[in-house]
Design goal:
Layout lengths: L1 H16 L18 H14 L6 E5 H7 L4 H7 L10 E2 L5 H8 L9 H4 L2 H9 L1 E3 L7 E3 L12 H4 L2 E4 L7 E4 L8 H19 L3 H34 L1
Antiparallel strand pairs: 1-2, 3-4, 5-6
Length: 239
């Protein structure tokens, strides 16, 4: 009951941030929680580009640093910009009421976004911002139409525009030389950022999976002994 309530409470604010299902052809995302360099880079990208608006209020810096193999001193120096302590929750300093006026809605907490919306959604959303002069912030998004969020990764990706033909406007093209990263480098960065959010959605996932393997092995061994013991008990009865 408690788990259902938490999920429901998290879904409510996320609903204001996410639109209904998109018809954009989604690229599949395959997370890798054993890839520590990817998760560490994703943490760095999140701290530098996302935490100004989006907190992770159910995640602690200390747990994250420990899971990702980052020394506490290094995490505090390079990833904590709010004066918080290593044991604090990863909250944002964005004022909630003012942000409603700035963006139309307060930026949601993203602790559970990868679980609620799915990693494919997050991965494609982050890659499909494009120039739209008709929008208040000058950008739109193919996965979330009429998004009320600026393209915070613009300097990395560069200026991306949609290319229209007689049939549709389904192609996105980045203006050459406008971003700090190549297309391949940006795709890799977005993979790492999405991978980090995948981890944050369930930090104990790998531990749970490892425990599950041991439980299954135990049940197999126990079942084998139980079968042999049962056969031994019934041997004399059958004969």
């Amino acid at each position: 009951m408690k788990r259902i309530l938490v999920t429901a409470l998290l879904t409510i604010p996320l609903a204001s941030w996410s639109a209904s299902s998109s018809d954009w052809p989604m690229q599949e995302f395959d997370g890798d929680l054993q890839n520590l360099p990817s998760l560490q880079n994703g943490f760095k990208l999140y701290a530098n580009y996302c935490m100004g608006c989006h907190g992770l209020q159910f995640q602690r810096y200390e747990r994250t640093a420990d899971d990702l193999g980052i020394p506490h001193e290094l995490a505090l120096k390079n990833l904590v910009f709010t004066g918080q302590k290593i044991g604090d929750l990863m909250t944002t300093s964005m004022p909630r009421e003012e942000s409603k006026a700035w963006f139309g809605a307060a930026p949601p907490d993203l602790t559970m976004v990868a679980r609620v919306r799915g990693t494919d959604w997050v991965y494609n959303y982050l890659k499909t911002f494009y120039v739209d002069e008709n929008r208040p912030l000058g950008v739109n998004n193919k996965v979330f139409a009429n998004v009320g969020m600026p393209n915070v990764l613009l300097d990395l990706q560069g200026v991306q525009r949609q290319v229209c033909n007689a049939e549709d406007c389904s192609e996105l093209v980045v203006d050459a030389g406008t971003g700090l990263m190549s297309t391949e480098e940006f795709d890799s960065a977005i993979y790492d950022l999405t991978n980090f959010l995948y981890y944050v959605g369930e930090p104990a996932r790998l531990e749970r999976q490892r425990t599950g393997v041991f439980v299954l092995l135990f049940l197999i061994i126990l079942g084998s002994f139980t079968y042999l013991l049962n056969r031994e008990y019934w041997k004399d009865v059958k004969h």
